[in-house]
Every structure is written in C-alpha cells, then in structure tokens.
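Task: complex structure prediction.
Instruction: return structure tokens for all chains below.
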Amino acid sequence: DIQMTQSPSSLSASVGDRVTITCRASQSISSYLNWYQQKPGKAPKLLIYAASTLQSGVPSRFSGSGSGTDFTLTISSLQPEDFATYYCQQSYSSPYSFGQGTKLEIK
Amino acid sequence: EVQLVESGGGLVKPGGSLRLSCAASGFSFSSYSMDWVRQAPGKGLEWVSSISSSSGYIFYADSVKGRFTISRDNAKNSLYLQMNSLRAEDTAVYYCARRYVDNPGDPLDYWGQGTLVTVSS
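Output:
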C-alpha cells in the first residue's frame, strides 16, 4: 500500500503570506495526486487534481506541483477563507490513501 | 446542480449492521464511479471503497474488507454501503463522493454532507 505523508501537520500564517504544504508518497505515483480543502463541519472540497490542474472555480492563488513521490501545494497570498485543513490523496492505486492533513491556522 | 445526500447513519452496537445510502441528482449517475470516504471524530480522512459506473471494478480499504460491501443501483441513482460486524473504530462521518469521470485515477470532485455512524454499546 502507498503511504502519504504531509508536512507540516500544522502551520500558523498571516493573511497575505505565501504558504507551501508538502506531500510525499512512499512510492512513485506519477501525477496521480489530488489536494482537498476541508473546513470544520463541512465536506472536503477538491482544489487541485493530477498534481497541478486547478479544479474549476478554485482561485488562482492555489497551485500544485510535483510528480513521482514529492508534491507541493502553494497558496500565493493567504486569504481569510483559506484557513482550513488540507489533505493530499493519491489516486494511483487502491487503496487510495490520504495524507494525515495539514491544519492551517491564523497567526 | 450536482447533489449527493447520504442517509442511514445512526447508533449501532458492536457487531451490528447498518446500511448507508447516497442519493445522487443533477448528473448522469450511471456514468460515474463513486466512492465512500470516512472521517473519525477529530481525525483525518480515510478512503473506504470505490465502485465503477457499471460495478465492474470494486475496491476496499483493508480495514473494511470482508465486512463492508459497496453497491449501486443506477436505475435509482443510488449508492450503498452495507456495513456488517461493526467495531468501535468504524465510528465516523461517512461521505459519499463522485469520481471526476469513471477512471480509478480520477479525483473526487463532489462530496455529500456526510452521515454519522456511531458504534457503541
């Protein structure tokens, strides 16, 4: 099974900051990497798929990169609505594992 | 508008059974793969199971294999999760989610609001 490891587990940042979250797969997953945002009490929302493709309607301040085993999610200028928990997920092979999450908090 | 509405959650004793349903609307349900994902209280997301549009492929997490069964009824636009031999560690909010199209490598682009399953004596 493929293990997904995110870092950091939590992050404090300010509005306007540039933030990067990393996700590492235990084996190569090509570009089969997706990023989701989840706010408290809500369902996850797809942000980026295939490592770098922005889902329709998602602001362009979100971007993704990487392939193989190492991936990043970058938010170029944090907005108040971006404070949430972010998860990566590999869709390369079953079981389609998620990372443990990165909680982004206001500094 | 794509809508996914889960139902069937509740309180069940260890060893008991429960059947979750997910009613889909706003898209051609029979053309999409569907998944179940769960989230234990205060914890992260855990993928549970996937089923292709025609039920031709089905996958399970090791943690539920042999106890849970995913199925779908395309005529009723519905997805199901039959959960047997429930354990305390199955306590979670269960989400149904749609795959982008019908490929195993697709992301989950729409999610329901979730239904809470509590396994406790």
